[in-house]
Design brief:
Elements (H helix, E strand, L loop, with lengths): L3 H17 L4 H9 L15 H33 L6 H10 L5 H18 L4 H19 L5 H18 L10 E4 L2 E8 L3 E4 L1 H15 L10 H13 L2 E3 L2 E3 L16 H18 L2 H7 L1
Antiparallel strand pairs: 1-2, 2-3, 4-5
Helix pairs in contact: 1-2, 3-4, 4-5, 5-6, 5-7, 6-7, 8-9, 8-10, 9-10, 10-11
Length: 290
């Protein structure tokens, strides 16, 4: 029985009618897929609607994976180009592209840099000079391509504290030690160079706290929470330098340009961390002391 040409014609008419009636594509597919005569099919079996949807989902998933790969490749290429960057924004972006910092941290540091550069233009006299010196310090590190990811925390803490200080606090005397609410880290004022993190003074403070907990100094009570907080902050402010953790000075001193380190500061830091390990039983501080 030769029905195939007739069956094909009927199927095509059915599809056209369904399209004119506004039926969905899936209804049209089902109409074509249904046999029009007993034992008669239009060529190979037509895939079901579920199979078509599954194939479409798989294709979309492959497209998303391919897009992610293209984005990752573009970021790697940009990170390679930024190796030659000599700017603070370039150093920040490369740190993010190489996953050294999170997107949230990247946005936070960019905002700190933008606010400092905005506010220095609004200041005058000594205040403008001091905040400008700190901004220049960060720019010099970037120009020398040594604004590495491990230096971002101490450098940008310095920028943030100087912006806060010079836009709101009274002028200090040279050599004044300064702390900020909620942060035990000690800063020192260097005339013409702004406020700088003072690692030796900060570790001296940690040694006193640890000594009280180890009963090395009977005059002061043991304050373990304060000791832990200060040591955690100092570990976070250390920079990777030649395979060891260093607490760098971010100011010019004599003929030395930042960042530079002091043997006395390193030794005092190691002592404070070792004492903190004993007083608190926290092995992290023992590892940092090595």
């Amino acid at each position: 029985m030769r029905l195939r040409p007739f069956v094909l014609a009927v199927a095509l008419i059915a599809v056209a009618v369904l399209a004119l009636r506004g039926e969905s594509e899936s209804d049209a597919v089902l109409a074509v897929a249904a046999p029009v005569a007993q034992g008669e099919r239009l060529g190979p079996p037509t895939p079901s609607v579920d199979a078509l949807l599954a194939a479409r989902a798989e294709a979309e998933a492959r497209a998303r994976v391919a897009q992610k790969r293209r984005i990752a490749a573009a970021r790697r290429a940009e990170a390679r180009r930024l190796r030659r960057s000599r700017s603070v924004p370039g150093a920040l972006r490369r740190a993010w592209l190489t996953h050294a910092i999170s997107r949230r941290e990247y946005d936070r540091l960019r905002a700190t840099w933008w606010r400092a550069n905005r506010d220095v233009q609004r200041l005058s006299g000594i205040r403008r000079t001091e905040l400008g010196a700190v901004i220049a310090m960060a720019s010099q590190l970037a120009a020398a391509r040594i604004l590495t990811p491990s230096r971002l925390e101490p450098v940008f803490l310095t920028i943030r504290r100087n912006r806060e200080f010079w836009t709101s606090r009274p002028l200090p005397r040279p050599g004044a030690r300064v702390t900020f609410r909620g942060d035990p880290v000690v800063f020192e004022y260097y005339s013409g160079r702004g406020l700088a993190i003072q690692p030796l003074a900060s570790f001296g403070k940690a040694n006193a706290l640890a000594g009280a907990c180890l009963r090395l100094a009977q005059r002061y009570p043991c304050r373990p929470a304060a000791l832990r907080r200060l040591l955690e902050r100092m570990v976070a402010l250390g920079s990777e330098r030649g395979g060891f953790l260093a607490w760098e000075y971010l100011i010019a001193f004599g003929s030395g340009a930042p960042p530079w380190i002091s043997a006395m500061t390193q030794a005092t830091g190691a002592q404070a961390l070792a004492r903190g390990r004993r007083a608190l039983g926290d092995v992290r501080f023992g590892r940092a002391a090595r």
